[in-house]
């Protein structure tokens, strides 16, 4: 075996689509290429030992924001114990600001951007000569239909136990400055018939959970409808063994035809991730995000009231020009629309993203280490930003977990952001922890907090006990069937 493709995934359940694309497009070198995935947190020595057990001549690493630091340690050790092995890096994290990175210094070669054409070519040169002269190779972007699709490379074990990532299109036509996809010129679709044939084959092999990584699923409504119809047909044919699909949507583009399609999905079959990011028009203009806030709000309201889709809506704190006050207004507005989850993100300066142009004017201070989270800016000082970080963490534990369905509305009342921030400050002051808070302890802490707000002890405990007993889900909740909920939680 000559070539090993590898990466450190964030979790075991995340099967790497990028590596499978590379393997599918290795051409004549495919026979001598293998794929092995690891999970972050594994011991460096073990990873290196297992890589070398393949006796590879070339190792290709997929580098992402979540694994760059650990992979740098792996590459450093690998080059010490086996300096003859050529290390090639690829992936979004090394595709920009490439020459400034320690991991790049340690490696032999880097492929930036798309790897499917350039990585096999580079491997051929490393193995058979002439030896490549350059260290950094700009990835060639072929027409999408020239790419071999990777889905047959999902193993039966992947299908059974892991999230299957799929893509019907690549790229995004929008230019939100905090996002790596802002660098794409447009969105390119894969040939729909081929793509659906691959989905059919995955389905026949037992796949039931499909996570679309398309940045904007609802760009081309005709295509969106055909993909949705594929899933509706499966649901109709086999309602006892339902299929589940996850899509990312832009919120202000939901024509009637799409609404009609969405409304046909039964509970537990559809999940949407919707980026709002900010409801503040001045901030949207600053970061070049084009969004009709009225339409976006109307569409979210329609989805919560007229569809069974589970909705996960993203907001980002720390954007240039966003104050705590304006963020709070956006948060409260979104809460009123009753999505199932609000993903409260903190701005990160992803390598290569144009948001950097605001650094000086808005005093943007980012952590120099991955994931490059914002620490302070002109409008939000460091201590306040840390309060927001804790809010986000506690929000996941209390609100997004769905474990406090009856208590949460009482806790938030008529000022969700302000009241949850007060709770978050209190919880931190009284636990000194944002992680590893066991559920029982959290329940006890929430009960105590409600008492500090004037609630009778017995009432607080009864309210929490009703959640603990799973008495009543949030009004808009459409939980996935048990089997799928388990998969989604993975
Ligand atoms: S945030 Fe979404 S819409 Fe904006 S550039 Fe990124 S992927 Fe595209």
TrEMBL record:
Its cofactor is [4Fe-4S] cluster. It comes from the Bacteria. PROSITE patterns: B12_BINDING, RADICAL_SAM. Residues 471-482 have a biased composition (Low complexity). Signal peptide: none annotated. Residues 158-392 form the Radical SAM core domain. Residues 471-490 are annotated as: Disordered. Keywords: Iron, Iron-sulfur, Metal-binding, S-adenosyl-L-methionine. It holds the Pfam family Radical_SAM. GO terms for cellular component: cytosol. Transmembrane segments: none annotated. SMART domains: Elp3 (SM00729). The keyword Iron-sulfur applies. This is DUF4080 domain-containing protein.
